[in-house]
Amino acid sequence: MHNRLGVAHAIVFAVCLFVSTSSPKVFSDDWVYSVKEGDNLWDLTVDYLKNISYVKKVQKLNNIQDPWQMSPGTEIRIPAKWLRSFPMLVRVENIRGQAELIDEKTGDSSKLISGVLVIVGDTIRTGENSSVVLGFIDGTRLSLEENSELKVQFLGGYEYTGLTDSRLYLKQGRLETQVTPRKDTANHFIISTPVSVTSVRGTDYRVSAEPQNETSKTEVLEGGVLVSSSDKALLIPHGFGTIAAVDREPIPPVKLLDPPSIEDVPRLLERVPVQLKLMDLPKDQGYRVQISDTPQFDNLLFNKPFSSAMIRTVDLPDGKYQMRVRGIDKNGLEGKNSQFPFVLNALPEPPFLLEPKPGEGILEEAPTFKWAENKANQGYHFQVAETKDFTEVLVNISNNTETGLTLEKPLKIGKFYWRVAAIDQEGDGPFSDPQMLRRILPAPKIETPDFENENLVLRFRKGLPGQKYQVQMAEDENFTVLLVDEQIEEPKLELPMPDSGEYFVRIRTIDPDGFIGPFGVPQVIEVPGMDLYWFLVLLPLFALIAL
Fold it and tell me: Which residues of the chain form CATH 2.60.40.2550?
């Protein structure tokens, strides 16, 4: 493999010396040469054509009267098949995961490595979660995705002209190409599958071969592609795709889905594996999501289709990445890309928040907060705010070395959010999800009960605006059997006079947003017997008589 690599590098260097900077033009498969001062047909034939015998053919094809005297600027058509050619090579520019190279002559397979050169007859096979990027001499790039098999059928160039001829066979899998546009040359770049042939002269397009259902898909992002199948050829313009199947003509061009909206996708992600929510999908549609560490997507770190808008990828180290998202229509054709950069800052992971519990009501004016310890952390960043987005931070302690703290300043009555980030030698990690707590007033206390018109009347202090109250009464302090369980809007409850005896009553508040505070300390009330009750009722009358 290493000997082959060294020899191939020498060949590529020599090949590059042949590439001319002249400006030829193309008509069909012809190369068009623009005559320069001092040119003659004999010299052109020696420089470019297979042998000198083609002089007469070129003279006749172009109706040249004097092969020794040609006017500068005259355009001469030369069929590409008459030109002197040389074999070309393809370089493996990048590998992600596992891939192997299969030699056509021996059938032997070897591990594919970056930098190796691929020749005619070689087959590249990629594994699960793997990809290979191939680079061609003319600048064309091809990305072969996971579980794919690609054979190099022909690679050739024409000396001094800049023309190339590349023919590949995709047995299965997916690939995407960025073919270097050469509007003025007779370049060929052809990809065949078991059911179709695609031909281009410079474009960005994708091809898939699906043996399981004997179909092939082509999606054109730039330029145009000629797709042939079952003796029928269709020109597929940019922004369209087609599907070919065994013994069937390609379907008419289908408009590709527009790039998905990514305005609401965050550019800072703080959890692994990466998770995000895209726009909801119509029925029978999906997404493909790709992640790379380069804008050119040379290195595919993640590449998967999804049938829903919920996206979950693999674990990645902290860093800067590029994400590419495209829709998949009901035909399985993949649409145009939306691409954006994002930063992943997921380490060190935030600690678990222990106290106060989520949504807990806190009576203390200066609450104590606690979180879990990780000995690898050097400190913690603690924050409290009134809003979940932490636009205005009330408490900001940037380097707390303990796994808890008590606030120095009291919190007012209301709703608050708190969060903690871990700190290691690399700096702050992401904050934990905000956790809500409430500073609340103690539950109302019952005033001395009144006995009015054979009713027991309970009154207590009015709470905050909009609050409701839950009042419970039982014969035991554990409230195992409830005699009363009422929700009321006013701080007063009238009950039918219960039997004489001792009762336990407790109250808690219910906020307008549904938050239910803790019950206060149960209070004991005494309901007098009937003799005492009538004595209490007549007591005011006795006072009047005494006057």
Answer: 268-344
Q: What does the alpha-carbon distance between residue 398 and residue 431 come to, in Å, rounded to a whole number?
A: 12
DSSP 77-142: EEEGGGB-EEE--EEEEEEES-EEEE-TTT--EEE--TT-EE-TT-EEEE-TT-EEEEE-TTS-EE
CATH value of 268-344 in 1.10.10.10, 3.30.830.10, 2.60.40.2550, 2.60.40.1190: 2.60.40.2550
pLDDT confidence band for 23 (50 / 70 / 90)? very low
Which residue in this structure is represented by tokens 């006795």?
Answer: 542
CATH topology of domain 353-439: Immunoglobulin-like (2.60.40)
Q: How does 424-446 read in b/e, with b if 16+ C-beta sit within 10 Å?
A: eeeebbbbbebbebbbbeebbeb
Closest CA to 340 of 322, 318, 314: 322
Comparing CA positions, the residue from 524, 543, 531, 535 lying closest to residue 449 is 524
Helix, strand, coil % over all residues of the chain, rounded to 5: 10, 45, 45
Phi, psi angles (nearest 5°) of residue 531: -60, -45
pLDDT band, very low/low/confident/very high, at 200 (cuts 50, 70, 90): confident
> How far are the Cα atoms of 45, 67, 225, 295 from residue 79, in angstroms, in the given order?
12, 18, 22, 39
The number of C-alpha atoms within 13 Å of 483 and in the hemisphere containing its C-beta is 16
What pLDDT score was predicted for residue 528? 87
Indicate if the pLDDT at residue 1 is higher than 50: no
Instruction: Give the pair of three-digit tokens for residue 244.
Output: 């070919």
CATH 2.60.40.10 fits 450-533, yes or no: yes
CA–CA–CA angle 274, 210, 302 (5° rounding): 15
Can you tell me the distance from the alpha carbon of 195 to that of 210, in angstroms, rounded to the nearest whole number? 9
